[in-house]
Amino acid sequence: MDNLIVQMINENQETLKNNWLDEVNIFKEKELVAASTTMKLSEETDQQFFELLIKHINYHDISKDGTLDQFFDQVLHTGLPLSYLTQGLQAARRVIVNFLVERISDKERLITIYREIDTWLDPILNRVVENSSQIWERTVSIQKTALLELTAPLIPVFQNISVMPLIGSIDTERAKLIMENLLNGVIKYRSEVVLIDITGVPVVDTMVAHHIIQAADAVRLLGSKCILVGIRPEIAQTIVSLGIDLSLFPTKSSLQKGMESALEYTNQKLVSNK
Amino acid sequence: MDIQSCVEVRNEWDIVSARQLGRNMAKELGFGNVDQARITTAISELARNIYLYAGKGKICIEPIDQLGKKGLRIIAIDNGPGIREIRKVMQDGYTTSGGLGAGLPGVKRLMDEFSIESTVDVGTEISATKWLR
Amino acid sequence: MRIPILKLHEYLLITIQVEMDDQTALQFQEDLLNKIHDTGAKGVVIDLTSVDMIDSFIAKVLGDVVRMSKLMGAQVVLTGIQPAVAITLIDLGISMREVSTALDLEQGLDKLRLELEG
């Protein structure tokens, strides 16, 4: 890096900082929700940001030593958007270039400097994007695991009767896990009847209805009777409009009714002790 | 077992050989019961297709490792008549053998990745992969 | 290789314990129908507990056997289908809804008794 330029930048830090802050504030006013805590936090962050940029210019390339990563992590975790970082970097580029253009008249030199500034700032920009997409992927993966862990076990309620309450949204991967749990449970508890309760499934679209029917078909193949309970009006509509034949799977509106049916089917009865 | 293992498919007993090869490899790689069944069934379907439509071909099974992600790949190759309309064949419910065979859509559902290349009068190559969970 | 068919009163019991190749499956179909004819059996239980794979061909043979047996006056129940097998059949799109199923041999016989009496 051009030492004269570095010197020029160091000598004029205050001016550069103020110009940069002006640009950043324009962006903040337009894009950030002006909650006072966020604004206060972000002022301190601005200072840190600028200091890091100066350090970067002086030490040539700090994109690999971890200070930048730490800073970006911190920023993204306080809820400031990714655009704060990318816009901040672009603003820095603009501000420095404008500053230098005003003071250097040699066109050739200016072009070289312009290119150099790109090589200073591009690594940081790349690091920001890489970093934030890693955080994103990590979050998605954690949420995915959490959802998979919500898989409900098959619950043996009475002799020969088990219940599987389905809770939450059911995507293809979760459906596979639920299916395995369900079938292994049927074998383990020797359930003659399985009640699949879908009360806790918020959305039953074509795909979900398909998964539920598949689960019911699989239970039937094993040799158990499957009763679907918790059918809300919207679900009934979806099933009918899909033309699905449920004649092999009785459905009941509530778990209670389904249980009565199951008890009847297995020749059992609840007797009161009064 | 790092290398590909292949079985020539010329008759019905080769279908059984291919299945057993697949099951053994799947077991060795650490696939659970359900995935072992999926892989074995997929191999059976693909081998049967070769036997029914091409007369002869081969099934190759190999363990794969892609950046730490481990799995198993089935490759079914034949120099048969080829498939004229791949899209039609990949549609559920389409069958040319009078109900025999659940068809390629079934194999696709059993496995995690599926690709098919076919040229009329030249042959067909199908590749299907299952990843270790 | 032939699959043994046992007679228990008016029922026929079969436990499939080997990996069936195509010929074995077709031979089994023939043997069963002959036995139904010879014994006049009214009910058949085919136990699949030891079967760890059913592909589309075997599924078709089993489905056919059920239909053919019915034509000859015998009800058939398939028992003991394993979870892994059920899952692969569902993946293949085969739900065999026209076939009666039960968890095990005992429940299979109970089911047959109900069907034949009812």
From TrEMBL, chain A:
The keyword Transcription does not apply. InterPro entries: Bact_StressResp_Reg (IPR051932), Globin/Proto (IPR012292), RsbRA_N (IPR014792), STAS_dom (IPR002645), STAS_dom_sf (IPR036513). It holds the Pfam family Rsbr_N. Keywords: Phosphoprotein. The keyword Hydrolase does not apply. Residues 151-262 form the STAS domain. It comes from the Bacteria. Gene3D superfamilies: Globins (1.10.490.10), STAS domain (3.30.750.24). This is RsbT co-antagonist protein RsbR. It comes from Fictibacillus barbaricus.
Automatic annotation (TrEMBL), chain B:
It comes from the Bacteria. Residues 34-133 form the Histidine kinase/HSP90-like ATPase domain. Keywords: Kinase, Transferase. It holds the Pfam family HATPase_c. This is Serine/threonine-protein kinase RsbT. InterPro entries: HATPase_C_sf, HATPase_dom. One of its GO terms (molecular function) is protein serine/threonine kinase activity. Its EC number is 2.7.11.1. The keyword tRNA-binding does not apply.
From TrEMBL, chain C:
Coiled coil: none annotated. It comes from the Bacteria. PROSITE patterns: STAS. Residues 1-112 form the STAS domain. This is STAS domain-containing protein. It comes from Fictibacillus norfolkensis.
